[in-house]
Amino acid sequence: MAVPNKSQYKQDEEAAGAVRTVKSRKCYYLKMLADYADVSIRVVATVFLADFLQRLFRCVVEYIRYSRYYLPEDRLWTILRRGCTYESKHIYLAMAFVIAGLSRISVTGDFTVVIPTALYLAQIPLYWLFFDLSQSTLTYSHWIRENHGLDYAAGMASNYFHGYLKLALPDTKDDGLKHRMAVYEAKNNVTFGVDRLIILCPDEMFVEKKLENNSTLLDKAEPLETKYLHRAGVHRPFKHDVYRLNKKIDGKTYYFAMEGATPMLSFFDAMESNLSATWQMKELKREIWLKFCKHLKHLIETWPETRNEVDLLVYNAHDQKGKLVDIGELLIAHLKNKTKVIDEISDDSFQK
């Protein structure tokens, strides 16, 4: 009978120990991963519970203090619907964690592993204290950029479009912008540089009362024929001023139907007034200006009757040396590049 080799026996013991160590580590990491999953599920459950209680509290406050903002017949339902509306990504996340929780219960056979304990529930007041910690001025900027139509900029653009451009420019009874421009050309033997209404939208949002005062290249001409429409009980006039370039381009003198974006001028006045100005308006004025231009451009190009009626000139009011930009120079550049289409208005479109 062979006698076992002691060295071989020692090696076998070391190999077995190494295997046990590897298995032990695997078990440790698996347990750590399982514990992490259990804690995460409990944290998420606690957060959703804290959020739901906060939403419910707000609904109660809304129902008691602000009931006059709702119609009596659907007040409760409207408040609950508004207070308990979740974004799609949060719904999907909640479903994912519910599935993860059910999976853990099926593996362990113990549903308490995913139920928040008293220690977790005691942290709910901290959530209520810090739930708005992520809010900042940058948050307002992103909110303005979103396509909800509820911000100041989108509201101004919508009112300007629906209350003015959509009414004044299309042809209803031979009174559209293009028709009036054609009559103007024939009557005065002149030529328009573009057969559209040019709307100026500088970044400082201020436009002179008389555009010729802001340019050595512009002269005021006779306006287009006034268009009248009945609007909210008023026989409202729609007027468009005309300006003439006193510098010939390729031997020709060109005319332009042109005006400033009046909502932006009103916003400029609001920022300068102690009655209406807020720090948010001043801090985010460029965001509001850009959103106004983007939304107005979208509305003009989307509506069939206006998409070929307006050229929106969005520009920096001062050049790189700080000198005020001459509107006449802008018109000359626009005339030479009038077939160029600007697909997107953004900060990258301008250079300081």
TrEMBL record:
It is a multi-pass membrane protein. GO terms for biological process: antibacterial innate immune response; antiviral innate immune response; autophagosome assembly; cellular response to virus; cGAS/STING signaling pathway; positive regulation of antimicrobial peptide biosynthetic process; positive regulation of macroautophagy; positive regulation of type I interferon production. It is found in: Membrane. GO terms for molecular function: 2',3'-cyclic GMP-AMP binding; 3',2'-cyclic GMP-AMP binding; cyclic-di-GMP binding. Residues 38-149 form the STING transmembrane domain. The chain crosses the membrane at residues 90-107, 113-131. Residues 151-338 form the STING ligand-binding domain. Keywords: Membrane, Transmembrane, Transmembrane helix. It comes from the Eukaryota. It holds the Pfam family STING_TM. GO terms for cellular component: autophagosome; endoplasmic reticulum membrane. Its main location: membrane. PANTHER family: STIMULATOR OF INTERFERON GENES PROTEIN. This is Uncharacterized protein. It comes from Drosophila ananassae (Fruit fly). The lineage of its organism: Eukaryota, Metazoa, Ecdysozoa, Arthropoda, Hexapoda.
